[in-house]
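Changelog note: in this version the structure field was regenerated for every chain. One regenerated record is shown below for reference.
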Amino acid sequence: MKLLDRLIESLRAAMLAPDGVVAPAAILWTDADGQWRQLLSPLRAVFPWVYTLGPYEPATRTGPAIWLKCIVDRTLPETPTSGEIPVLYLPQVRRQDLRAAGDCPAPLQPLVELQYRGRVWHQSNGHDWTVRAFLVSSDGLGLDIAADRRTEEAMLRALPLMAEVDLRALQGRRLDAEDFDKLSVADPVRDLLLWLNNHETFEAGAKGARWDSFRSVCRNEFGLDPEQNSPSEVAGRLVSEDSRLDRVWSRFVEAPQLYTGVAKLLRDPTGARQAELTFEGSRNPRINERDENELRRGIEAILKIPHAAACARTLELEAGHAERRGWVWARLGWSPWAKALAPLARLARAAQNPMGGSTLAAASAGYVESGWQCDAAAVEALALFGAGPDASLMGQAVRALYQPWLEASARHFQSLLATDPKSARDAVGDSSPDRDTCLVFVDGLRFDQAGKLAALLEERSMKVSLTSRLAPLPTVTPTAKPASMPIRNGIRGGDGADFTPLVETKAGLRPLTAPLLRERLEANGVEVLSPDETRIPSGAARGGWTECGSIDSRGHSLQVDLVHYLGAEIERIASRVASLLDAGWLHVRVITDHGWLLLPGGLPKVDLPPYLTETKWARCAVVRGQPDLTVPVALWHWNKDVRIASPPGIACFRAGEAYAHGGISPQECIVPVLDVERSFGAAYATIQSVEWRGMRCRVRVQTNDPLVKVDLRTNWKQEATSIVAAVKEVGTTGEVSLAVPDDIHEGAGASVVLLDREGKVITSQMTTVGEKS
């Protein structure tokens, strides 16, 4: 248990938002006395998105209030990566300064509104987190610390040391100044690393007896003298595998992010020993840097050779560089191309085998078995770099390896569908759930992303069956979504002007819009839930229906940048499935309408004379009249008299489209169906009710296992944040009573957590401690 780890956990917990609530725009960290300032450097090494109020120094992520607000609004280059919430550290600022908006000092006024869009990191009683409060609180480290001034001063002196020291040895006894002072001399390996990390700061704080002790230890244990041997010379010995420094190297490798100064010394040492010797690469960052440059040139070279040779060369590069992913330099972010080579190699391996199969069924089965992994590898590789030259090169490399496979697979699939269109129509099917099943519709859930979703759900102890069906043509939402729903009766084709079918109503035929879809579902005995709604099933005859995710809409707006958001979308869908099972649905079936094509650099364009078409989308068009076309033609799913033109291969009717769907390809047409339920033999439990009587919480649980335990935590993920006197088993009664011994938590938010026999979280529910029932 380290202070730095617990601090990050607490900040992350403050970022969590309940279901249906928008995540905070920023976390405001007020510190009236500036006590935490010493911890910023090691904190940023492992938690980089911390910004400090102060004079403008972008190199140290420091700036005035208006600059911090621009960081939050992501209008500056220094802003966090997508999905990360910035933490604004405000030294010499009290929470009350921001709350008293009318009296707030002018330099702080730009931050006032952020306490409403964001969240203030504070104690459960509303006070700012001081160092002492965090160390003694059960929400922090739960230490017992003397309250005298001398101990307070020693504690603050030792604060940087506590960042990377395991503090479990300090628990269970009262700590005073002597205990904190011992931290400064108890670990010579750490001290040597701290000296190497920033020798000026270390020497300034280790004057007199402590400095003499440090020199003596270094001479005796490491064979060096900090006054005679410079940091760069010692770094050279560290790289050259001096056996006396093996312990120092091992400690550095355990947590290199805490010693960025040491890493820089190792990367660019100037000692004579370093210049004279050649060292094994895992310890020498300059060898790793040389190999990275060679690898980048190797990736650039595959852009200029034929596809088969490019795939083979990529696999050769993987064989030569895979080892470097295990070196410490990769953990420091100094081996980006060695890490990127893993998905590129999987892409090259898969792209050597174009899609086969002599029938549509055989081709579909081959794609479902292994073909989708080529798509998955391409997406993973593209997601590794955000922007800049590396992202551009990665896009070109993926295109070189992926496009020929994508093109050949699409053309083969189109030829099979043209010879057997009836099989394609018969394989569309629909979903007809029973009363215990809830359908979750996800727009644009491509098969490779469904594979990731299935793996994520299985990690959460769910039983998942992943099968497939064919999407109707054209593969656009207005056509394909109604075909996936249990409302087939009464739907008519129409003229296909915008690919939306018609439905019979009392007012006549009307386009099947979203409100009408909902009405038809309810009329057919389906319980319809809004996207963020979770409730106990009502027992509707044909189960439930809800929608989740925004993959397709993001794809159209973001194009290739969609790859950076897919992980969050899959997490969101998995959480939705879990919440429905927790609510009492026995089965959840995840369905979709269509997949999509995605290619960096844009899909190739093919021309289709405008006078030949009624409606032209990126990958489909309604054909006017009976012209002879040179592109594949299929029949509209809802009206066989309407013909649909589709571009050959992976081409588009519009230029500049990197993300598109509507055409005929395995990626667009072969769509997943995931059936999810709780694993057989696994503990099933749901929270029926939570009632408070003072500081005692009574929880009623429905479960198949009397050994399921109930806990109350401030952070549902972290066992250490439990605030109850004892965690209890539900037993045969299904009821437990939990006591919260410390009234400091009264009025604070907490989570009731159900745990299986192995201590894994089954489900959780938010509550307010001491809330009146």
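Spot check on this record: Confidence is low (pLDDT under 50) at residues 271-278. The radius of gyration is 31 Å.
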